[in-house]
Write a structure and sequence with these properties.
Helices cover 36% and strands 18% of the residues.
């Protein structure tokens, strides 16, 4: 089978399965091409019964891929819906060492919809289920992309900034100097409870047709959880519609975490006709 035109995306057959191996980095920039490759694989595996050499199903191999944003998760959720409609078995491969990806699949509920295997050999050796895949609603999975992943002890220790009142977060908005971007100012503490409110606030802004957002924090903001899953989910959503989510004035430890994971480019402001952005502080 021919490879697709997306660099690093490989499509091959193994033990009767169509195996789609994802690139080293998965994000908004290559999402469309990857989606096309997966859709073609599903269409091939769903050929009418009796067709010559009909594939047994499709395996999406994350391998050592790094998820730059929520695109890879949305891709898998939509592929699961399409596979179920076609009656095509869909499986995912995520190595045991790829802890962030496994955590994301578990936190969003995707691992309950798509069987996850540690390698391609295991995924292609497991027996096929009897009958057509049972119906399932993936809406909650897509919604869960905006919710925080459970914090690991290393992440919590890295992001903690010292004693601060728990459960208090002030969220205010203002217009940026370009008249296009909306600035979301945060003060107080981000913990497992308040970070959900941040996600709800950002979602409300996006659903109100605000596509260009800047989330402004500071070193005085208390961090008791990892806000990146919510921020990445919102970023993917607005970027898909030509918007952006930038993070000016980040707390030092969060900036270190973003740089360490190579996510800096994901949170840059889009260019505007009005030139550089001027952030206006709320009164």
């Amino acid at each position: 089978m021919r490879d697709t035109t997306v660099p690093g995306l490989r499509v091959a057959t193994r033990r009767g399965f169509v195996v789609v191996t994802l690139p080293a980095q998965v994000g908004r920039q290559n999402y469309a091409g990857i989606r096309t490759g997966v859709c073609r694989a599903l269409a091939l595996a769903a050929r009418p019964a009796g067709a010559a050499r009909r594939p047994k199903g499709v395996v999406v191999d994350f391998g050592d891929s790094i998820l730059l944003d929520a695109s890879g998760l949305v891709l898998l959720a939509r592929a699961e819906t399409r596979a179920r409609d076609l009656g095509c078995p869909l499986r995912a491969v995520v190595p045991v060492m790829a802890a962030p990806v496994r955590c994301a699949l578990h936190a969003t509920g995707l691992s309950r919809l798509v069987p996850v295997f540690p390698d391609v050999a295991a995924a292609t050796a497991a027996p096929l289920p009897d009958g057509t895949p049972a119906g399932a609603d993936t809406t909650h999975v897509l919604d869960a992309l905006r919710l925080p992943h459970p914090d690991g002890p290393e992440t919590a220790a890295r992001l903690a900034t010292g004693p601060a009142p728990a459960g208090t977060l002030a969220i205010t908005t203002s217009e940026a100097g370009d008249g296009d971007h909306t600035v979301v100012h945060l003060s107080g503490v981000l913990d497992q409870t308040t970070v959900r409110r941040l996600g709800e606030t950002l979602t409300t802004l996006v659903e109100g047709n605000l596509r260009h957002l800047m989330v402004r924090m500071g070193d005085r903001l208390g961090l008791r959880c990892d806000p990146l899953p919510i921020l990445l989910g919102i970023r993917w959503r607005v970027a898909a519609e030509g918007g952006c989510l930038s993070l000016p004035g980040l707390p030092a430890r969060l900036r270190e975490a973003i740089d360490r994971e190579g996510l800096g480019a994901a949170f840059t402001a889009c260019r505007t006709a009005g030139g550089p952005l001027a952030v206006t502080e709320p009164a």
